Amino acid sequence: MQNKQTREGFRVAELIGKYLKGTISPEEMAELEVWVNETEGSVEFMREVTNAEKLQQEIDSYDQINLDEKWERLVEKALVRERANKKRIAGFTWLNVAAVVIVLLVGGFLLYQPKETGLVNVKNGQAMIDNDVAPGTRKAELILSDGSVVELNGKVKSNLSDDGTSIQNGVSGLKYEASEGNAQVLNTLKIPRGGEFQVTLPDDTKVWLNSGSTLTYPIRFPGKERRVQLSGEAYFEVKALHAGSNKSRVPFVVEVDGAEVQVLGTHFNVQAYPSEKMIKTTLLEGSVKVRNEIADLLIKPGERALLPVAGGRGTIEHADSEAAVAWKNGLFLFSNTSLKEVMEQISRWYDIDVNYNSDFQFPKYFTGEIRRDTPMSKLLEMIEMTGIAKFKLDQRTVTVLPNRK
């Protein structure tokens, strides 16, 4: 098991790795600054490991060696020093390891996983399954007001129309042009498992839809509010809109399974899959009010509102905003996430079924950053390398097995 120094060394490595890659969040940057201010020798350490020229040289050299052997020697050396109880800077022994870890993280050689050694080499591993499943793609079904269905794949451009409204179907998704009229005409965009898609609504609000999601919306917004219905998960960038002689703001409302999210102009993510017990709303920018018959929650950027689907009072908690919208940016981003939730995301994106062997014991947790265009065999291999489970793939069904060593 890791002791406190071990965990601190790897956490520092993770933070500096994100800092160098430009993916560190404000909260993580604050955590790194605290460590620098409170740890003796940290300034010199940071200066050493963030030297761009030296870092690139190290990355190039690691591409030419056997990382498994190097990693094993490095960890064993640190453990020997640790057992000797040398009185040094807190975490210094493991920071020697962390210096190498930072190179490997930035170079893309490692996947962070807090187990016995903390990290897993994902560059040199061998696939352990016989067949493969391709990752999801851009695809959707557009249901027009007359019930006709248009298949979309994000590759073929076309011009569509519905009740006088022009709809551009391009490589970046659908874009509705603003049109005159008062009739409430609805379109529905359905994203199958294994798909994702983007739509720009007539008010210039942008919506990204994740796998297994459905969005129903009017093709024009003539009234005093803008209202859409969501099932599944979507990221919204809502355009601020003013109307009337007094130019009052027109609210934007997302209906989700007995609750609603009301905004004026903001960026937020809503996750409301039918199979889940909670409606999760994460705010990145602006302000959002989330409510049902009982609860009325106002959240700020960096917070997440949780509302029970079955009704009842919700809660507000600190959010990992980067992880919440990672799917929109082409990533799986897990931070001590339960394996069951990890497999649910994988199931939707790769359009597979997941079964658990009767001997498999929960809970298991996983931390890692993986591109969503990774073939599933490689993705499962990465998770297997952490030692928390093994997988058997048969056609489009994955069975999760205990990892018997």
TrEMBL record:
The chain crosses the membrane at residues 89-112. Gene3D superfamilies: 2.60.120.1440, 3.55.50.30. InterPro entries: FecR (IPR006860), FecR_C (IPR032508), Ferrdict_sens_TM (IPR012373). The keyword Membrane applies. Keywords: Membrane, Transmembrane, Transmembrane helix. It comes from the Bacteria. GO terms for molecular function: sigma factor antagonist activity. It holds the Pfam family FecR. Residues 189-289 form the FecR protein domain. This is FecR protein. The lineage of its organism: Bacteria, Pseudomonadati, Bacteroidota, Chitinophagia, Chitinophagales.
